[in-house]
Amino acid sequence: MTDRPAIPAPDGPAPNFGPSRQPPAPASTDPQPDLPGCAGLTPSDSPTPLPVASTSPNPADQLLAADPDRLPGYALAPLADADRPPAEYHALSAALGCPDLFLADADPGPDQLRFAAELAAEAVRAGERVLIVTPTSADADAVFTRLTSGPGVLVGRALAAYEHPDRLPAAAAACTARSHRDALLADARTRAAAGIAQAEARLTALRAAGEAVGPARAAAGRLARAAALVRLDAEARQCAADLEAKRKELVAVREHPALAGKRSGVFGRVMGYFSHKSAVADDPDHQAKAIEEEVGQLEAAAARVAAERTRVDETGRAGGSAFEVEDREQAQAEADFLRAALAFAAAGMGELNPTPEAVDRAAAVIPALAAQTEAELAAARRSVAELDGRGPAAALRVLARVRVVVSTFDAVGADPLTLPPAGDGPAFDRLVLTDADRLNETGFAHAARSAARWVLVGDAFGPRVSHRNGRLPRPTLFRRLWAHLHRETWVHEAGRLVAVLTDADPNQLTREPLADRPDVELRFARGADGEPVLAEVAFPPTATAAEAKAFLAGELGEVRLSPCGPVHWHETDDRLTACWPAADAPHADWAELAPGVREKVVGTGPDCRTAAVSFDRDAGWDRESAGRWLADHGGPGARTAALPRPAVIASAPTRLTAGVSG
After folding, report:
1. Which of 51, 98, 116, 462 has the most CB atoms around it within 10 Å of its CB?
2. Strands, sheet with 496-500, edge to edge from the N-terminal-most edge strand
3. Its pTM surpasses 0.70
4. Terminal-to-terminal C-alpha distance of the chain
C-alpha cells in the first residue's frame, strides 16, 4: 500500500443491480401506534427460544439483542418446485430452512403476496401448517386466490369482525371457518363411522381366528404327520431297493469268485489291461466282507425308518387323528387348514404356514391385536360422540386439518381457524407476515404466538424522502431487524464490484489503492480501538466475480460462497464436487480458493452464485475433509434474503445492493 490520494471512482451511470444501499438505520425507542386489533395485547413466550442473551419474550427483541455473526447455522431446505430463478430459489429455501425468524425483502404489493403464497405451498409440502397474515382484506383474498389456484392444498380464510362472508369472493366464502367446520365435521363423522365399522369387523375376524386356532393346529399336525409318513415310506422303499441290490451283489461274489473285481465291456478290459490291480482289493473274501458291511448299514437304516414311521403313526393314534396316507384323508386335512388360514387372513394376520409351530406363533399375537383393535374402537366411538355433540373442541380439532389459513391481523386469535386445537401452544408451524415493515412490536408479539417459526416479508428500505418536518420516518421493527441482521457481501458501485468485509458507513471510509494493484481499492473504517480496519475491497470494472473471489481467497483468506439450496455431492476417482443445481448455468467461471479447491461461479455481479465447489483428491481431499471445509466457510446462518427488485436511481453517491444476501 501507499499513501497516495484515493483514486476517484469512474464516472457513468450505475447499472441496474438492485436498490440503493442505505447505512444502518438507528434503533428507535419512540412508541408506535398499534395496528388495528392489536391494542392492549401482551406478547407471549416464544415457542422457539433463540440462543441470545435477552430476557424479552418477544422473538424480535431476542434477535435484536443477539450478535448476528454468532447465530446458529441451519440447512437450506429442498424445494418441491425447483424450476425457479436462483435468487427466488435461495430466498424460499433459506426461509423454509430457518429455525426461528427470517426476513425477506421484497417490493410491496404482488411480489410480497406471491412470495408468501409460494413459501406456504412449499411449507405444506414439507408437512407444515401455515398461517399467512396480511394487513388488508384485499391482500388476504389475493393470497387466497394464489393458493387455491393449485391442487392439493386445503386453504382456509379467517375473518375479522368487520369482514362478512357475503362480501368475499365466492371461493373464499366457501372456505371460512363455518364452511370448513360443517364440511370437515361431516367428513370426520363419516371417517369415524367407517373406523367403527372397520374395527368391529376386525374384532369379529379376530374372534373367528381365535376359534380357528384349534382346528388349524389339528389340521397342521395331520398334514405334518401325513407328510412325514409319505417321506418315511419313500425312504423305506429306497432302503429296501438298495438292500436288495446289495444282497444280490453279495450272492454273486460268493457264487462266482472268479468274477470278483473284473470289469465288463471293452472299456473295462482296456482299463484292466493298463491298471495295476491290488491283490487285496480283488480278493473275493475281502469284497464279500465289504458288501456285508454295506448290507448291515442298509438294514440299520431301514430299521430306523421303520421305527420312525411306527412312532409317527402311534403319535397320531394317541392324538385320536391317526390315519393311513390316503388321498381322501389328505384332502380333508388340507381343506380344514385352508378354512383356518382364511380366518387368520381375514383378521389381517398374513399368510399362515401349515405347521403346528406356525399356528402357535400366530395364535400368540391374537390377544394383543384384539386389545389394540378394542382401543381403536373405543376411540372412534368417543370421537363420534364428541362430533355429534358439536362441541367447540371437536370443531377446533377438525379445523386443524386446514393446512394453510389466510388472515388479516384482526382475525388472528379471533377466528376459529387461527386457534390451537388443544387450547394452548402454537396452532401453526409457521407464520408468514406480509407488509411486515408496517408492523410494530405489539402486533408482531400478538401474531407470533400463533406459530413456532416466523417469516416477515416487507420493504427493508422504505421511503427515501423526508417528512414535511425535514426528518426521515423512524425505522419500523422490520427495518430495525433488517439493519441489525442483514449482511451485504457484494455491492455494485459505479460499475465496480465491491466486496463488503464488515458493516460500516460507506461515507466514512478511507480509501487507498493497493500498491502492486492500483486498480484494486482498499477501504478502511475506524475500529473500536481507533485502529483502521479493512472494511471493503473495490475491484476494477473489468473484474469478474470469479476473479474477485480468487483475489479475496488468495490475498485475505476470505472465502465468499453463495450456495443456492441443499448441497449435492458427486464423486469420481480424481475429485469430489459439491453441487448446487439450482444455481447452475451454461456459462460459468472458476475461482481458485485454496490448494486443490475451486469454485464454479455463475454470474458476474453482486448476484453471482456458487454452482459447485471442486476438491482435488490428489491434493489430499476426501469426503470428510471437504465437508469440514464447506462447514467452516459457510458463515453464520443468514436470517435475511432479498428478492430481485428494480433499481432505485438516487443522487450521487449511489450504491446498488445485490438482489440476494450472501
Report:
1. 116
2. 510-513, 521-526, 532-538, 496-500, 490-493, 656-657
3. no
4. 28
